[in-house]
Amino acid sequence: MNSRNKRVTLADDDPGILDAVGMMLEMEGYEVSTTLNGNTILNTESGLPDIYVLDIWMSGSDGRELCKKLKTNEKTKNIPVILISASNDLQKSAESAGADDFLAKPFEIDNLLSKIENCLQN
């Protein structure tokens, strides 16, 4: 799959994760937009991404709630969402929120890349 020109929106309240993961995705050819506050993704007026990668627990917002809102919005309902969390036992709640995939932290960047590629192919 060609990652060129594919846009990823990455939301996490840990600036270190945003920087590291964002940089790795850019090195793979993705166009990345990052935010520390997940609520800002609901107000995006500039082009929509091809996929969202959201942390479940962020200050001020819950990735599962954001996922539910994205999946019920006509403009964003078909955009894949991968939820990430430091808690591995949240996979079921991620699925019930409508997430297309789940990844527990810490994760290998290769695992995230393959999940992104799988979601974008479907």
Features:
single chain, alpha/beta, two-stranded antiparallel sheet, globular
Description of the molecule:
The protein is an alpha/beta fold. Helices cover 34% and strands 23% of the residues. The protein has four helices and seven strands; from the N terminus they run βαββββαβαβα. It has helices at 15-27, 63-72, 91-96, 109-121, and strands at residues 7-11, 31-35, 51-55, 57-58, 61-62, 81-85, 101-104. Strands 2-1-3-6-7 form a five-stranded parallel sheet, sandwiched between helices. A two-stranded antiparallel ribbon has the order 4-5. Helix 3 (91-96) links the parallel strand 6 and strand 7. It is globular and about 30 Å long. It starts with 6 loop residues before the first strand and ends with a helix. The mean pLDDT is 91.
Question: Short summary of the structure?
Answer:
By secondary structure, this protein is α/β, with parallel strands linked by helices. 34% of the residues lie in helices and 23% in strands.
